[in-house]
Amino acid sequence: MTTVDEQKYLKALARGDAEAFTVLFLHYFPKLKRYISSLLQNESEAEDLSQDIFVRLWKNRSQMGQIENMNAYLHQTARNAVYQYIRRILLFKEYSEKQNQAARYGHGLKEMDIEASYQAQELELLILATVEKMPPQRKQIYEMSRRDGKNNEEIANLLSISKRTVENHLTQALADIRKIIKNVSVFI
C-alpha cells in the first residue's frame, strides 16, 4: 500500500468509512499479529491483542486522519499493548504469590481451610484473567451485569444495543468462564 493510498484510507476512516477500515484491517492485521506473536511467542494472545488494537482503532477513528505513518503507529501501539499485557501477567503472578504466602502463614487455620481458600482465590484470579481477555464489548457487558448488578434490559439501553445482543454476550462470557472452571476442576 502506498503512502498516498494509506493517507486516503486513514482520512476516510476518520469520517467513519467502514470500507476504509476493512481495507486497512486486511492489509495491516497479519503484519501486526506476526509482530506481536514474535514478541509474546503466543499465537492466540497475539491474535487477541491485535484484534483489541483494531477495535480501539475503530473506536478512535475520528483521530485516524492525523496519523502520518500507519506502520509506525501500529508498531508503537503493539509495543504498548504487549507491555501492558506483560505487566498484567506479572501483577497476576505477584498477586498469586502474595496469596500463597498469606495462605501458608495463615492465622491458625486448618490446612484444609487454607487449601480451600487458596483454591477459591486462584479460581477467582483465573476468572478475572478470563474476563480481561474477553473482547471489549463482552467484557463491558459482563462487568455491567456482574459487578454493577444491572439487568439485561438496562445494559441494552445504556449501550444502545438489543437485549438479545446482551444475552448473547453474557452467554458467551459465562461459557468462557465455565470452560476455565472445568479445566481447573480436573486438577482439584
Explain the overall architecture:
The chain has 188 residues and is an all-alpha fold. It contains 8 helices and no strands. The longest helix has 35 residues, at 70-104. The chain has helices spanning 3-14, 18-40, 43-59, 70-104, 111-133, 136-146, 152-159, 163-185. It has 2 domains: 1-105, RNA polymerase sigma factor, region 2, helix turn helix motif (Rna Polymerase Sigma Factor, Chain: A), CATH 1.10.1740; 119-188, Winged helix-like DNA-binding domain superfamily/Winged helix DNA-binding domain (Arc Repressor Mutant, subunit A), CATH 1.10.10.
Topology:
Blueprint: H1 3-14, H2 18-40, H3 43-59, H4 70-104, H5 111-133, H6 136-146, H7 152-159, H8 163-185
Helix pairs in contact: 1-2, 2-3, 2-4, 4-5, 5-8, 6-8, 7-8
Keywords, separated by commas or semicolons:
single chain, 188 residues, mainly alpha, Rna Polymerase Sigma Factor, Chain: A, Arc Repressor Mutant, subunit A, 2 domains, 81% helix, 0% strand, globular
Number of helices: 8
Number of strands: 0
Quaternary assembly = single chain
Count of spatially separate domains: 2
Low-confidence parts, pLDDT < 50 over ≥5 residues? none
Q: What's this entry about, in short?
A:
This protein is mostly helical and 188 residues long. It is 81% helix and 0% strand. It contains eight helices and no strands.
